[in-house]
Write a structure and sequence with these properties.
The chain is of the alpha+beta class. Helices cover 24% and strands 33% of the residues.
Length: 223
């Protein structure tokens, strides 16, 4: 299979500790031709002037001068991983502020998971142990009924076999690699991180690392 590419935004005011703009700008997946990539770059840049971006900025209480201006958008072109598993990982619980790693995972590419179209598996990792040791304190197996697969013809959506829907999508070895990568990113960046990751066989790829945007528990701090 030839290489496929993702075109995605990297705006100057995106993915900060206070605001994420996640899902607001245009993203295109599974592209192969130069013309399609150029078209997608234009769509990504022009999405900065969309009504939904303006509404998000108003709701997020940006400074008045910023509300009136169009955001400056950088564009990333990434070679896509033909993932058999993908998901996200947080090095602090984004809902409670607890010092635990939360990993959401499913089969195939990660687009259905991050867009909320499927219910993934959720692994909550106890981080009270040392870097070389950890344990799953809570596992919730999601339905995972659909998955996106990268093919010669682009991205297709297909049902997940029923036998895989009812079992965890990650092995202990895969969990260990994600936990280790998440901790390494947190140490390197100096703050709790929200990762997007993809795996192909035994190869783990970190697609993006950004600050955890909102921790709902008041006064939560990383210990």
């Amino acid at each position: 299979m030839g290489k496929r590419y993702a075109v995605r935004s990297s705006a100057l005011d995106e993915d900060s500790a206070g605001y994420s703009f996640a899902g607001q700008y245009e993203t295109a997946l599974g592209l192969s031709s130069v013309s399609d990539i150029i078209t997608a770059i234009g769509a990504c840049v022009h999405s900065a002037g969309s009504s939904r971006i303006a509404a998000y900025r108003r709701a997020a209480s940006f400074r008045e001068s910023m509300q009136e201006s169009t955001p400056v958008v950088g564009v990333l072109i990434q070679e896509m991983v033909p993932a058999d598993r993908a998901g996200v990982a947080f090095t602090i619980n984004p809902l409670t502020g607890a010092n635990e790693i939360v990993i959401d995972a499913s089969f195939g590419l990660g687009d259905l998971l991050v867009s909320g179209q499927i219910t993934p598996d959720e692994f909550i990792i106890d981080t009270s142990c040392q870097d070389t040791s950890w344990q799953v304190s809570k596992l919730t197996v999601g339905s995972k009924r659909l998955m996106s697969v990268l093919t010669h013809h682009g991205i297709i959506r297909t049902p997940v076999p029923e036998s895989l829907q009812v079992i965890p999508s990650l092995s202990d070895r895969q969990l260990n690699e994600i936990v280790s990568a998440a901790r390494a990113c947190e140490r390197a960046l100096g703050h709790p991180v929200d990762l997007e990751w993809a795996a192909n066989g035994n190869m783990l790829f970190i697609l993006q690392a950004r600050p955890v945007t909102a921790i709902l528990a008041a006064g939560a701090r990383r210990g």
